Amino acid sequence: MAPSWLQNVTYACFGLSYLLAWLLEWxxxxxxxxxxxxxxxxxxxxxxxxxxxxxxxxxRHPTPAVPDGALLLLAWVLALFYVYGxxxxxxxxxxxxxxxxxxxxxxxxxxxxRLEPAALRDTVPAWITGQRFWGALHGTLxxxxxxxxxxxxxxxxxxxxxxxxxxxxxxPGRVLPxxxxxRLELLNRRAIAVAFPLLxxxxxxxxxxxxxxxxxxxxxxxxKVLSTGALWLVFGVxxxxxxxxxxxxxxxxxxxxxxxxxLLVALMAAHPFAPGGDTP
Amino acid sequence: MNLRAIGCxxxxxxxxxxERLAFAPSLLPRALAELxxxxxxxxxxLGTCNRVEIYLARPEExxxxxxxxxAEFLSELHGLPADTILPHLYEYAxxxxxxxxxxxxxxxxxxxxxxxxIAGQVKEAYEMARQAGSTGPLLNSLxxxxxxxxxxxxxxxxxxxxxxxVSSAAVDFLLTVFDTFxxxxxxxxGAGKMGRLTLQHIQQLQPAxxxxxxxxRDKAIQRATEFGGQFIPWEQLDEALIQADIVxxxxxxxxxxxxxxxxxxxxxxxxxxxxxxIFDMAVPxxxxxxxxxxxxxxxxxxxxxxxxxxxxxxxxxxxxxxxEAIISQEVRQFVLDWNRRKDxxxxxxxxxxxxxxxxxxxxxxxxRFNGKLSEADKAYIEGAFRLFQNRLLHGxxxxxxxxxxxxxxxxxxxxxRKLFGLNDS
Lengths: 280, 425
Description:
The complex is a heterodimer of chains A (280) and B (425). Chain A contains 10 helices and no strands. With 280 residues, chain A is mainly alpha-helical. Chain A is flat. Chain B has 425 residues and is an alpha/beta fold. Chain B has 3 domains: 3-161, Glutamyl-tRNA reductase, N-terminal domain (Beta Polymerase, domain 2); 166-305, 3-Layer(aba) Sandwich (Rossmann fold); 340-419, no CATH class. Chain B is built from 16 helices and 10 strands. Chain B has helices spanning 15-21, 28-39, 67-78, 82-85, 94-105, 117-131, 137-156, 166-177, 196-203, 217-227, 237-243, 260-266, 302-318, 320-368, 375-405, 409-419; strands at residues 3-9, 42-47, 51-57, 90-93, 185-189, 209-213, 230-231, 246-249, 276-280, 297-301. In chain B, strands 7-6-5-8-9-10 form a 6-stranded parallel sheet, with helices on both faces. A 4-stranded antiparallel sheet of chain B has the order 2-3-1-4, sandwiched between helices. In chain B, strand 2 and strand 3 (51-57) form a beta hairpin. Classes of the chains: A mainly alpha (280), B alpha/beta (425). At the A-B interface, helix 7 and helix 8 of A face helix 8 and helix 13 of B.
């Protein structure tokens, strides 16, 4: 049993820490003389948020099978990426673009948790909550694919902004420094290349396990199934366009962003394995 | 402080004079040694393409060096009449010399406002003088301080933000497109002199190879040899454009050599979406501006780069007051610290001398009352004498520190030395 004060860690604790870290990252850019102070402050709040986030996950151990759990776990992995990026000098832009995604996921998780029937958590089949190996593997694969999709989204967003600046020939010295088009394209390509097989394997595993679970509602037209299927299709198209044709990277970036939107829908939708889960 | 900064720069002397006064690397150690030996001065010589400056520091009790004397020195060294040199020299003394160096190192005195190279050149000049053994206490404090101030100015203001020259703006744009250059191909079209500096900047990024093509075969081969590149026949321009990642075009053609139609038909689709950055430095332009799409083909002409450079310069000018404020604060602090440092030894000697006198009086006094005084009485008497000493010295020390703050400490230091009979031993 965790100490009672740890039970008091809420969404607000780490959500606000991430928000302060983001504001301080902006402060470092807008206020050059306080650059160092702001960046250290941002890292401090970012780490504090990550610690609170970790404590929350340990104490409440939300399952990835319910929407808020999936969103929180994804936000947590992305927060690790954020800290890694800052410590490895990936540049200010990385933090400025990734933190809003993390904050957004935490906010969504909070909203979904309020709307979600409390009973749902208790009725999720044991195998999917990680108590059995294959269920845990299914969840892990989908989670890692989600991380890849999120990274691809952030890289795409930065790519589109950088391409817009170049199209308008805006002086790079006067605007927020971003990674080069080449690096962003590479980041996007790698994220897609990693996420697609993980997503495919995770979904296949789910498809195999689902019919075998007698307690599940086999609702093939649930929002979760449809959005996940659409996500997989978009990713398939992305992989084909990236490697099979020479579609301009800008269009690939837009598709990556669409994939992220589908991911959010899929994560927010209740799991069809869960009794009482969503039906269209 | 007995410091002088004497020299000339792009505003005070024409290039014909500056190039005659420039110190070749082989001449520098001899010049520094000569300044040391002849004038007993600490010396640093700062030479860039826009300035030649000599920083000289002598002991305070000695007469300062002035521009006419240095003009004679430079005349001997460079074989130029002193009368020709002197009108172009400026001279800054003491705190003004400190301010001048701080401004120079921060790029406030540069032709391209806020340029960052100058700090490196100041560091190089100082290191060379230090290795030659021509620096001493003052310059060893001054130059590191100047480098620190330059860093502070660049960090705390936007004086170094953006790229205020065409070639650096071009490189900055390249860095927003490409991450690595060791696998990139640069194509130079034409043999014109325009864009030569830009090419030098691009070559510093160490691209994998440089291709050179021109209508005139001989000129192209000559330029390829000059840049360590590979000659490509003019007829293979389209193939070269397919291979290239960066293009620098400088022909003198009266009309565009690459139209949009030609580019779309023979180049764009064969490149498989790889980004191509084109710097069209020619006037009239060599590339049809319509081929720019901002993603796979990014085309900049001279006007684009000049506009960016001018915008950056205008932005930098806004940060000059903030930079000057930092420099003023740092100059005050440096002068204050230096003067305190100069006061330290004399205050130390004065205190030690009065300590000695006090001991000489108190010890026999306590001896005389030996056995009649308690320990508390002895401590009281010693404390009273120490208090007297402190009150006695407070006036002269405070006056000395105040005079030093105003840069007039030397006279008072001399007076104290004489009044209290302090000698250097």
